[in-house]
Design brief:
This protein is mainly beta. It has 1 helix and 17 strands. The two termini are about 20 Å apart.
Length: about 220
């Protein structure tokens, strides 16, 4: 049975001059699993629109050989500059565990309102963020863009050393227990399809569960 790292969710308010543009960027954005000096990281951003305003949840899973697993969570606001998004965090925290599958515990909160991140679309329309949440990776591409409804439980599945099972980590995973996902992401069709089991393959794989009141 897969073990879940439950993500703590955060909300960041977007201030837009064009509500149609805000709606157009709704979805889930993920980086690749990126190698770092002592491990790897994955960055995820959930963008959604509510009552004409846009919000996002941003989180970063980090593994370091000497420290184990960390989640970096930011809360802040975003303004627009043309088609670029400027992300200004207002509150930040890090959660950690030394063993995959154990609940993340709050490690520290820290001031971060002096930081600023820029999300810029490239020629193909895919976004890059100026750096990872802790600044260890520059110009991070977000090549995985998933259709998404705010609050739906969605996880990325990946393989990595020192995991007792495959890594399953993502958004809104509270209360899932051992239930199987309802949907799998089909990258060739850019759409969700019925879940037909966890299948090995290159790159990251994405799964969606049916939302419950406990999520």
């Amino acid at each position: 049975m897969h073990k879940f790292l439950v993500v703590g969710l955060i909300s960041l308010t977007f201030f837009w001059t064009n509500p149609n543009f805000a709606k157009a960027v709704d979805g889930l954005y993920f980086s690749e699993k990126l190698a770092t000096e002592n491990g790897y990281l994955i960055l995820g951003i959930e963008i959604f629109t509510e009552k004409g305003k846009s919000f996002y949840n941003a989180q970063e899973l980090r593994f370091q050989n000497s420290r184990g697993f960390e989640e970096v969570l930011f809360v802040g606001k975003v303004t627009t500059e043309g088609r670029d998004l400027l992300l200004v965090p207002e509150a930040c925290q890090i959660r950690a565990t030394d063993t995959w599958g154990k609940k993340m515990a709050l490690l520290r909160r820290f001031d971060c309102d002096h930081l600023q991140f820029q999300m810029v679309p490239d020629s193909s329309g895919l976004f890059k963020i100026s750096e990872s949440l802790l600044g260890t990776q520059k110009q991070v591409s977000l090549p995985y863009v998933l259709e998404h409804h705010a609050g739906d439980p969605v996880a990325v599945r990946f393989e990595a050393p020192l995991l007792t099972t495959e890594g399953i980590w993502g958004f809104h995973l509270n209360g899932l227990g051992g239930r199987d996902p309802e949907k799998s992401w089909n990258p060739s069709k850019q759409a969700w399809g019925p879940f037909q089991g966890y299948k090995p393959g290159p790159g990251l794989q994405f799964y969606r569960w049916k939302r419950t009141f406990s999520n």
